[in-house]
Each structure stands twice: as C-alpha cells, then as structure tokens.
C-alpha cells in the first residue's frame, strides 16, 4: 500500500524565511517546519521525500512521523 505526502511552502515572512507544511494526503495530519531560509527549502523537501520513500511502509509508519518528537536542549539555554 502506498501513502502519499504533500509538501507546500508558505509565502515568505518579512525576514525572508518560510515554513514548510507536510501533510499526509487523505488525512488531517499536518506538520509544519520552520522558519527556515527560503534557499534551503528545496533541499529540505528533497530530504523529507527520500526519508518517506525509505521509511514508510504501513499506515502506522506514516502516522508515526506526525507524533510529537522530543527536542534536544539548545546549546546555551539554561534548564
């Protein structure tokens, strides 16, 4: 069974950054990445497409990538 994803890019913010929306087609699952410089969007989407092609084999796999992921602490931020 094949699962399709859709990637779209927001209009640029005043500082030139954009957001990438990743959506599992046929569902309401959506993930937003960014802000990121517009110049890296093509590479980012290409990498995500390759990840999906290599990793997603079942609907459960597809849904898992939309689950919240723990974020590593940022360097220099006190915890």
Strand content: 25-35%
- The pLDDT mean sits at 86
Computed Rg:
14 Å
The strand count comes to 3
Distance between the termini: 44 Å
Instruction: Supply the number of helical segments.
Output: 2
Helix content: 25-40%
Name the shape in a single word: globular
What pattern of helices and strands is seen along the backbone?
EEEHH
Low-confidence stretches: none
For the biggest β-sheet, the strand order reads 1-2-3
Concise synopsis of the structure shown:
With 79 residues, the chain is an alpha+beta fold.
Task: Give structural notes.
The longest helix has 15 residues. The N and C termini lie far apart (44 Å). The protein is α+β, with helices and mostly antiparallel strands and 79 residues long. It is globular, with a radius of gyration of 14 Å. It has one domain. It has a three-stranded antiparallel sheet with strand order 1-2-3, covered by helices on one side. It has two helices and three strands; from the N terminus they run βββαα. Helices cover 27% and strands 27% of the residues. A hairpin with a 7-residue loop joins strand 1 and strand 2. The relative contact order is 0.19.
